[in-house]
Structures are given as structure tokens and as C-alpha cells.
Design a protein that fits this description.
The complex is a heterodimer of chains A (480) and B (395). With 480 residues, chain A is of the alpha/beta class. Helix content of chain A is 28%, strand content 28%. In chain B, the strands form two sheets. In chain B, strands 2-1-5-7-9-11-13-15-17-19 form a ten-stranded mixed beta sheet. In chain B, strands 3-4-6-8-10-12-14-16-18 form a nine-stranded mixed beta sheet, with helices on one face. Classes of the chains: A alpha/beta (480), B alpha/beta (395).
């Protein structure tokens, strides 16, 4: 089987990893206060510990200030103007694809998204073949055979309150930062994964279905626990453009890996980035952090960030267990007026811990793309090693590329290497390709793809093949 | 620790008359209104602020005209020389130069404002000769006092100059030093700064450089032994097309905290920068480097490279390094790198296998690490004997 046909097969059946959470379609008033939080908790029939968790987070959040250090320059967000509990919205179903904006359909075509997918993404009523509930049951049974728990976090709160109580907020404390505190107070839903001891998860888990399901991913909360000697690969997002009317997205993702466990977390983010003039678009302010708690555990983040008007996130690894490994592979592409401020924190605490950071930033148009990262080697972390590489590519002379690495070492026998470069697309290479009859646009996209190769290689196959065409699409019209 | 400098302290400062009194008063007003640097501000996040506060407990050294300057080994301050090579500039011309070329935003830069507020030793010189001149500047020092100094140099078109500044700290002394150099086109300046402190001495220095087109500026900075030292380097290529080299070496031991903060900005196309910052940290010392390179849209064809190399020799020493790039122009080549490690075991083994004992092998490697930088200092180093331990590996 060729890679392409394998990929398209996987794409065709991407539905099977979905599930549906039933939420009452009631609305509560705008704004945030204690009674709203109590109401959310009551509607979700949550146990008392979770209500306490939310209230504590709220009281911390009230006294916190919105961070301004990153100098992102977005208009003030009115937190009292947000509906914090939104049940599925009653969006008018369209009857056929003819009613959908042809621009969107063109985008889908370029990404090679199957027709039925297109219908679902653009909110056209889909037929019974795509009845997610029945499909969800099939894959849940398969996972259950291995004892893997994969469900919505609301469901987990009901079924496994002890586990949630034990781990929720342990990696990202409720008062970690302004947006994490807000999320802790009002999180709507998200995914929960537990891989039991010794189990290698039989399939790639995906939140793909969930995010598109119409209920808002505005305050998502994800918790993944890999017990001893287990391993899992989790995919979040998809390459298709996501349209959402919510401006602020403040998700929290917590990963915990015990002894010898490994978690691979891959993200493709393509939220609506606003129009050419930077009007509209999503503020994607996410807190993602993984704890390598056990010895020889491993957490690997890979991400392709192309959407959102502002992306502000630093997936991090706390390398607490001896010989644990943290990895971060990132491609961030910004165009028009987009801003991406992203990077990672590698906190080396245990002995012989290792981390690798590879970050590729591409800025086009009037956009601003920053790598901001921290490598911290603690005083107990003997033999720690870090390698970082952050490269930036500039397309056009109005885009901005910044690199802000922070490196702190308290350990003499640790070794840290960091390198970074910024350049434009080489004229020679461009000329070489053009002289062989390749159009400028195609040539640039080939070079961008080569530039990102180190990271694309780390993506799960489903994403890797689409990532190229996604970048190509995003760069359309930037050359010439 | 939200503290201000006390009004009593500010009012106790000696006042100066003449052209500089306004600048001084503005700076004092600023200090009496603003808080002292806070942990929450990015540039001071890592600094030992309690040691900074100790600086303001010291009385001001009021000795006047205590900056010593030697032109080709001749004391020009005492002799009050003005000739075809060098001349003193009057205060009004200095003020004009400063207002025309203000690189540091004084309202936000604490060190420069502090110097403006308390400085009572200022010397301004214009260099004109096309032949290489060598200027040695010795900064005053006094035990248990806060010494202040400011040097302003204007290097005229086509001139060629070597400058060596020497700052020595003694017990419980503190320095506030500010040097401005305006480099006109086609001129070359090779600038060395030796800053050697003692256990409890403190140093706050700002180096502010403005370079015109086709000029060459090279800075080599050595700092060692201060309880708290902070050297801020600002280099601005006003129209690009100039060349800048910055080299630094910090050697810290005991409980030293040594810091270098640099900001290099290109305001025109075709500029060139090569920066190497090294540190060696021993005992419980802390070494900090934060380097920023700004390449705005106008600065096409800029080539800039920045490298931070750090050695940690003890299990309780700390290193923080943060090389930063801010780039808008697209046709540029910029890179930076940073490494932190201990001495390479392979290198020591290589030397040991050739019959060199471990201690000497260590010294040899450290020596090589330092010499890369020290060899670039524009002076006959033998004169400054305290460097011999880095230059002479056999000891």
C-alpha cells in the first residue's frame, strides 16, 4: 500500500474515534461570578471536590492580572461578556454544500478532505453513515479490551472521580497563570485518557471529532495519564480550518507519565485567523504541560500552528523522573496580521534527563512570529543534556521573527546547546528551481516544506501528509 | 520590596552648576518618583537586588576631576592638552551632541539615569588624528564610597583610536560609570574595558555607542571579582553599513554576580555584527548574559551573529544566558548560539595522555578559553598584572 492510499484510508475513517457528549441545551447568563460557577457545576452534576476546585480557582483568578509581558497587543477582553456554559448551539443546518461559502469549499478541496467530511465541517446535515454514536461504541469496545479509558472529562468525573481528584490540577496548578485559573474555574469539557500499566494503546487517540462537534472548545481541559510501561499517541485538532465565533480560547492540557511510560501529543491548529486585515480571529491562549513523573518516562510534544489570530502557548515538560526525556517539535506559520508567541519550557529536575527542542518559525505578510523558550537545569540534575534549535524563515519584508531563549543552569556536569538562525528564502535556491520550470509559489512551498522536514518527520502519519498542503495553502499569495 | 530612593539621599547629593544642572535635576526628579528596579521587570529579573540597594547606602565620593586620561602614555588631564590630535569639548557642545544622539531612553534606563543624577566627574574629548592613537582611561576608585564618572568621546571622521578603560574596585566600593562614544564615518575604534573588583565591590556601567556609516567598532570587555557587576552595552549603527565586534569575558568566583546586558540595533542596511560572550563560573557565583539584536525593516542585508559560551566549574555556580533576536527585515542572515557545560572530559584526557597533569590540563584549557577574548584587548596586558593568572597557564 502506498503511503498516500494508507493516509486517505485513515482519513476516510477518522470518524471512528469520536464520541458524543450529551449536554442539555440550556443557556446561562453572560459573565462570571460564584453563582455561575455553582450553576455550571450543578448542571454537570459534579461532585463537591470539583466545585471546590472551581471556586478556589475562581477566587485566585479574581485577584490575578492579565499578563502583558508578551507584548501581544490585543484589545482588552471583557470577561463578563462571555457565556461560560454553552450547550450545543442551535446552528441552522444547511441542506447541501451548495449553500456553503465557495471559498471554504475550495480550501477543503486543496486539503483533500473527503466530501462527507466537508459536509460535516461546514455544518451540512450528514447522513446516517456518519452517525457518530454508533461508531463511537465500536471503538470504545476495542479500547475497553485493553483497559484504556478514553472519554470526555465530564464523563470521567462521574465514573472515575477518584482518579480525577488525584490528578486534576497537579501539573498545571489552578493559580499557575491567569488563563489557566480561568479555565480551572469554568472549563466546559475536554478529553480524559488513562492508559493502564503495561498497555500500548492500540490506536492513535484523537480529539478530532470532539472539537468539531459543535460544542465549544473554548475552555477545554484535557488530562492524559500513562501508567507504568504504557504508551499512547494523542492527536488534537485537524488541518481543516475551524470557524468559531468565540474569540478567546483558553485550554489547559495536563499530561502525566509514570515510570517507563511515554506520551506523544500532537497538535495541528488551524483556527480561524481573521481576515487579511487582522479583523476577527481567535485568541488561542493555551497552557500545556507534561510531567515526566516516573523514571525513564518520555513526553513528546509536536505541533503545527497555522491558525488563530494570536497563538500564545508553551507546551512544557517537567522532567522530574531520573533519565526522563522531553521533546518539543514545532512548526509555527504566521501570515497576514497573525501573531504567534510559542515555544517550550524544559525543566530538568531529575538526574540524566534529556530534552530536545526543534522549532521552525515561518513569518509572512505583516505577521509576527516569536520563539520563546526556557531551558532550566536544576541543582540536582546531574548529567542533564539539552539541545535546542530554532530557525526562522522570513517571507516578505514586513514580517517579524523573534527568538527569546532563556537558559539557566545550576549544574556543572550538564550540557546545553542552543542554536538559532534567521534568514530569508535563498535567491539561489529559488532561481535553481525556477530554471527547472517550477513556479515561484511552488518553489517556495517546496523550500518551506524542506525547512520543516525535521518536525514533519515527528508527526503522526495522518498529520504529516496534510501538513505540507496546509502550509502551502496558508502561504498562498505571499510570493511575487 | 517596592522601594524608592529616599528623598533625603537624593537631596544629600552634591549639586553641580552649569550646563549639566538641568540633566542632573531631571534625572533626580525621575529617581525620586520611580521605584528601584524590581524583580518583575525583565531586565532585572535575575539581579541580586539587595546588593543593588546596598549601593545607595554608601556616601558619594566627591573628589573632583579624578578621571585619569593618558594619550599615548601622556597624562592629558593634568597637562590640560589641546592640540591637533585631541581637544576638550565645552559643556554646551556636549549637551548638543547628547540631545542629537540619544540612544538610551533615559526615562526607562535606570543605570544611565542614576549616573546622570549623581555624576560629578565628567570629561568630554574630541579625537581628530588619522594616525592610531592610544587612550588610557583610569576610573577613580574609593573605599566605602560610591564613585561616579562619565566619559564622552567624539571620534571624528577618519580617526583611528585605541581605548583602554580600567576600573578597579576595592572593598565596599561602588562605581557608577557611563561612557558615550560617537564614532563618525570611516573611523575605527578598538575599545577595551577591564573591570576588576574585590569581594564586596559593586559596579554599574553603561557603554553607549553610536556608529556612523563605514565605521568600525570593536569592544572587548573583561569583568572579574565583583560582588555585583552589571555592564549594559548599547550599540546603534545609525545608518547601517558599519562593522561591530563585541567580545566579553566574565570570570566569577565566591559569591560574585556578574552580568552583561547588550542591545545592538541596526538602523540602516548592510550592517555587520560579530558578538562572542564567554563566562567562567566557579564557587557559588552567578553569571548572567542577556543579549538582544534588533533588525528593523530598514536594515536589509544585515549579518549578525551572537554566541554565548559558558563554563561552570562548581556544583553551586549558576549561569543564565539569553541571546535574543528581533528581526523584521527579510533579507538578513542572523544566528545565535549558546552553550553551557563544564570542561570537556575528552580535552582533559587528551592532555593527560600527553603527560600533563590534571590541574595543568584544566588550566591550559581555561587559559585558551580566556585568551580568545583577552588577546583582543587593545593594550599591553603585562601592565595589568592581575591578568597574568589567565595569561600564564603554567602557574
Amino acid at each position: 500500500m502506498t503511503q498516500n492510499s494508507a493516509v486517505s484510508q485513515i482519513l476516510e475513517k477518522s470518524y471512528e474515534y469520536g464520541f458524543l457528549t450529551e449536554i442539555e441545551s440550556e443557556k446561562i447568563p453572560k459573565g462570571i461570578n460564584e453563582s455561575v460557577i455553582k450553576l455550571i457545576s450543578a448542571k454537570k452534576k459534579e461532585p463537591k471536590f470539583l466545585l471546590d476546585f472551581r471556586l478556589k480557582a475562581y477566587s485566585k483568578w479574581k485577584n490575578m492580572k492579565e499578563p502583558k509581558w508578551a507584548d501581544l497587543g490585543y484589545p482588552d477582553i471583557n470577561y463578563q461578556d462571555i457565556i461560560y456554559y454553552s450547550a450545543p448551539k442551535d446552528i441552522d443546518k444547511k441542506n447541501s454544500l451548495d449553500e456553503v461559502d465557495p471559498e471554504i469549499l475550495k480550501t477543503f478541496d486543496k486539503l483533500g478532505i473527503p466530501l462527507n467530511e466537508q459536509k460535516r465541517l461546514s455544518n451540512v446535515a450528514v447522513d446516517a453513515v456518519f452517525d457518530s454514536v454508533s461508531v463511537a461504541t465500536t471503538f470504545k469496545e476495542k479500547l475497553a479490551e485493553d483497559g484504556v479509558i478514553f472519554c470526555s472529562i465530564s464523563e470521567a468525573v462521574q465514573k472515575y472521580p477518584e482518579i480525577i481528584k488525584k490528578y486534576l490540577g497537579k501539573v498545571v496548578p489552578i493559580n499557575d497563570n491567569f488563563f489557566a485559573a480561568l479555565n480551572s474555574a469554568v472549563f466546559s469539557d475536554g478529553s480524559f485518557v488513562l492508559i493502564p500499566k503495561g498497555v500500548t494503546c492500540p490506536m492513535e487517540l484523537s480529539s478530532y471529532f470532539r472539537i468539531n462537534s459543535g460544542d465549544t472548545g473554548q475552555f477545554e481541559r484535557t488530562l492524559i495519564i500513562a501508567e507504568e510501561k504504557s504508551s499512547v499517541s494523542y492527536l488534537e485538532g485537524c488541518t481543516a480550518p475551524m470557524f468559531d465565533t468565540n474569540t478567546l480560547h483558553a485550554a489547559v492540557v495536563e499530561l502525566i507519565a509514570l515510570d517507563d511510560a511515554s506520551i506523544k501529543y500532537s497538535t495541528v491548529q488551524n483556527w480561524y485567523s481573521g481576515d487579511k486585515n487582522g479583523i476577527g480571529g481567535i485568541y488561542n491562549f493555551v497552557t500545556k504541560r507534561g510531567l515526566c513523573k516516573g523514571k525513564r518516562s518520555k513526553i513528546s510534544w509536536s505541533q503545527v500552528e497555522t491558525g488563530s489570530s494570536i497563538t500564545w502557548k508553551y507546551p512544557s515538560c517537567i522532567l522530574k523522573g531520573d533519565s526522563s526525556i522531553g521533546e518539543f517539535y514545532s512548526v509555527a506559520l504566521t501570515n497576514n496580521k497573525q501573531i504567534a508567541d510559542t515555544g517550550t519550557k524544559m525543566l530538568h529536575i531529575g538526574k540524566n534527563t534529556k530534552s530536545t527542542i526543534i522549532s521552525k518559525g515561518i513569518s509572512a505578510g505583516h505577521s509576527k512570529n516569536s520563539y520563546r523558550g526556557l531551558v532550566h537545569i536544576g541543582s540536582e540534575s546531574s548529567g542533564a543534556k539539552n539541545y535546542s534549535q530554532c530557525d526562522s524563515l522570513l517571507i516578505g519584508d514586513n514580517a517579524e521573527a523573534n527568538t527569546y531563549p532563556y537558559i539557566h543552569s545550576q549544574r556543572m556536569n550538564a550540557s546545553i546547546e542552543h542554536e538559532a538562525s534567521t534568514s530569508k528564502i535563498s535567491e539561489d535556491q529559488l532561481f535553481y528551481l525556477k530554471s527547472r520550470g517550477i513556479s515561484s509559489e511552488e518553489a517556495v512551498s517546496m523550500m518551506v516544506s524542506g525547512f520543516c522536514r525535521d518536525v514533519f518527520n515527528k508527526l503522526p502519519m495522518e498529520f504529516a501528509s496534510e501538513a505540507d498542503s496546509l502550509l502551502e495553502l496558508k502561504l498562498e499569495g505571499t510570493i511575487g | 520590596m517596592k522601594e524608592k530612593l529616599t528623598t533625603e539621599w537624593i537631596e544629600s547629593l552634591p549639586k553641580i552648576n552649569g550646563s549639566f544642572s538641568k540633566i542632573q535635576q531631571d534625572a533626580r526628579n525621575f529617581l525620586s518618583e520611580e521605584l528601584l528596579p524590581q524583580k518583575s521587570s525583565e531586565g532585572w529579573r535575575l539581579s541580586n537586588l539587595s546588593r543593588l540597594r546596598d549601593v545607595f547606602k554608601l556616601p558619594i565620593n566627591t573628589t573632583k576631576n579624578s578621571i585619569q586620561i593618558f594619550l599615548n602614555s601622556e597624562d592629558i588631564v593634568k597637562a590640560d592638552i589641546s592640540n591637533e590630535t585631541i581637544e576638550r569639548i565645552n559643556d554646551d557642545d556636549v549637551i548638543k551632541y547628547l540631545s542629537d544622539n540619544n540612544l538610551i531612553n533615559q526615562s526607562s534606563n535606570f543605570l544611565a539615569t542614576l549616573n546622570n543624577a549623581i555624576n560629578n566627574n565628567l570629561i568630554a574629548l574630541k579625537l581628530k588624528s588619522k594616525e592610531i592613537q592610544s587612550l588610557e582611561i583610569v576610573i577613580p576608585n574609593s573605599k566605602k564610597e560610591l564613585s561616579t564618572s562619565r566619559v564622552i568621546l567624539i571620534v571624528e571622521e577618519g580617526a583611528s583610536l585605541e581605548i583602554l578603560e580600567v576600573i578597579k574596585g576595592s572593598e565596599f566600593s561602588a562605581h557608577s560609570h557611563l561612557i558615550d562614544i560617537f564614532i563618525e564615518g570611516d573611523s575605527t575604534v578598538n575599545h577595551g574595558l577591564l573591570a576588576v573588583g574585590e569581594s564586596s565591590s559593586k559596579l554599574l556601567t553603561t557603554i553607549s555607542i553610536r556608529q556612523k556609516e563605514k565605521s568600525n567598532y570593536s569592544l572587548t570587555c573583561f569583568q572579574e571579582g565583583w560582588s555585583l557587576s552589571r555592564i549594559e552595552q548599547y550599540v546603534n549603527q545609525l545608518d547601517g553599513n558599519a562593522s561591530t565586534q563585541i567580545n566579553g569575558l566574565q570570570v566569577s568566583n565566591n559569591q560574585n554576580q556578574l552580568a552583561t546586558h547588550s542591545l545592538i540595533r541596526f538602523d540602516g542596511p548592510g550592517g555587520n555584527l560579530n558578538q562572542i560572550q564567554k563566562s567562567i563560573s566557579d564557587d557559588q557565583s552567578h553569571s548572567i548574559f542577556s543579549g538582544s539584536i534588533e533588525v528593523p525593516k530598514i536594515a536589509q542585508k544585515t549579518q549578525a551573529s551572537q554566541l554565548s559560551k559558558n563554563l561552570i566549574l562548581s556544583s553551586q555556580a549558576k549561569v543564565d544566558t539569553s541571546p535574543q533576536l528581533k528581526i523584521v527585515a527579510d533579507d538578513v542572515k542572523c544566528n545565535h548560539g549558546a552553550t553551557i557545560s563544564q570542561l570537556e572530559k575528552e580535552e582533559i584526557f587528551y592532555l593527560q595522555s600527553r603527560g600533563i597533569d590534571k590541574k595543568r590540563a584544566n588550566n591550559l584549557i581555561l587559559n585558551g578559553f580566556c585568551k580568545d577574548i583577552l588577546n583582543l584587548l587593545p593594550c599591553n596586558l603585562e601592565k595589568w598584572s592581575y591578568l597574568s593568572k589567565y595569561l600564564n597557564p603554567i602557574n
